[in-house]
Amino acid sequence: MKRALVLGVLIAVGGLSLAAYQPPQQQGPPVVTVEKVKDNLWVLRGDGGGGNTAVFATANGVVVVDAKNPGWGKPILDKIKELTPKPVTTLINTHTHGDHVSGNVDFPATVDIVVQENTKTNMEKMDIFKQNNNRGMAKRTFKDKMTIGKGADQVDLYYFGPGHTNGDAIVVFPALRTAHLGDLFAGKNLPLVDAANGGSVLRYPETLNKVHGGVKNVDTIINGHMPNQTTWADLKTFAEFNQDFLNWAQAAVKSGKPAEEAAKEWKVPEKYAGYSSSVSPLFGGLAGRLQRLQDETKK
Question: In a 3-state reduction of DSSP, which class is residue 236?
């Protein structure tokens, strides 16, 4: 799957430091595109913008999920004004990475910013917040579950364990049977695992299965980077895909082969039609995932 942009993250893997990583800037001004998902719910995308942004118009204001790369906060807010005259009241970040939180700094100080508690800790390490006097930093956190609003305007936040990071929030719009899963399910490919921010190769399938079993009455998923939505059944298949990868990876680690050599042997099983075989080089690529698994197994 073609990613809109490599993640702007705070991480160091395999000697490659990304602590000062700045995402490549798009050519020309940011252009935000809109897709209506359900009544009062849209996805905002943009070439070079980073993660998918959800916009949910409630009776009293707008709830936004994820704020993209640096420089995209204002274009997001401008586009929201075209969709509804209601003010933005809440911003939820699914996790800590720069292509999901950097736009926070452009949001008004009145906006309530909510994240999973581990994500706030991770965000506090990020230069973009330090350089902006902590503007855009999370104001409220939750551990396992939080509910915002009620009735048709209700938004449920869940955390089921480590995967992409150690703070991946599941954002559910119950009345619309829709959930934003961020980069825990970014797309139909091998997911990135950010070891420095608590991500886990070992527990990834378990976490996905907990999401699938623990959240009810959802049929539509807004993924972290896909150009279209997936289904709740797709999440189950994605969990199975990650379990199959984990089984292969555990055998590869047990074989004693160097991670770089073992990584060359991975192939997407044929049963996962539509899954990309490409693996992002971020976080050490496939060899980095094997190393992360080895490190986790030693604990």
Answer: helix
Q: Which of 83, 291, 124, 75 is nearest to 202 (CA)?
A: 291
132-187 pLDDT, tens digit each:
999 999 999 999 999 999 999 999 999 999 999 999 999 999 999 999 999 999 99
The pLDDT tens digits for 70-97 are: 999 999 999 999 999 999 999 999 999 9
The two tokens of residue 88 are: 């933005």
220: which 2 tokens?
């539509």
Tokens of 184: 């825990």
Positive or negative: CA dihedral 197, 53, 8, 284: positive
Which 3 state secondary structure label does DSSP give 181? strand
What's at 187, amino acid-wise? G
For residue 211 the two structure tokens come to 């999401």
Predicted model pTM: 0.91
Helical (H) or strand (E) element with 286 = helix 285-298
Rounded distance between C-alpha atoms, residue 249 and residue 93, angstroms:
30
Give the whole-angstrom CA distance, residue 146 versus residue 142.
6
How far is Cα 274 from Cα 43, in angstroms, rounded to an integer?
A: 22
Classified by CATH at the fold level, domain 12-298 comes out as Metallo-beta-lactamase; Chain A (3.60.15)
Burial, 111: exposed, middle or buried (Cβ in 10 Å; 0-12, 13-18, 19+)?
buried
Amino acid identity of residue 192, one-letter, is: L
